[in-house]
Write a structure and sequence with these properties.
mainly alpha
Length: 136
């Protein structure tokens, strides 16, 4: 059983990264384009929502393909911590009551990817493998 778990652990890490990025991108496309759900306010690029939407789309795409995963995930983790403390925490201490559960979850999920990396099914892994081959 341990062999099966060891085989699948890194692959499931890659799958988790792809699914999380796909879901995260939708928050950015909602802010920027009103898709897949209508946006709450007019999109202004040079605003907090504009910066958030841009980070969510561009950063989410990089996480999705697994390119520059660690630094991008660290940046997105910080964005979500910032979002929690600026938007949600002032309303109430408890994330369930202030609507901040997703911000907290995204924050720690991206913090995990900043430490663990993208997994084997990623451009980061492919490029590292290619570099090792060239340097031999």
């Amino acid at each position: 059983m341990e062999d099966i778990l060891n085989f699948w652990r890194p692959r499931l890490q890659s799958i988790l990264r792809v699914v999380a990025a796909f879901l995260f991108i939708q928050h950015g496309t909602q802010k920027m384009f009103g898709f897949p759900a209508p946006q709450r306010a007019e999109f202004e690029l040079f605003s907090l929502m504009g910066a958030a939407g841009t980070l969510e789309v561009v950063g989410g795409l990089l996480i999705l393909i697994g390119l520059f995963t660690r630094p991008v995930a660290f940046l997105l983790s910080g964005e979500m911590a910032f979002a929690y403390f600026i938007v949600h925490a002032p309303q109430n201490f408890w994330p369930l009551l202030n609507g901040g559960e997703l911000a907290v979850l995204w924050c720690f999920l991206f913090l995990f990817f900043s430490a663990a990396g993208a997994g084997p099914w990623s451009l980061d892994h492919y490029l590292a493998k290619k570099r090792r081959t060239i340097n031999r």
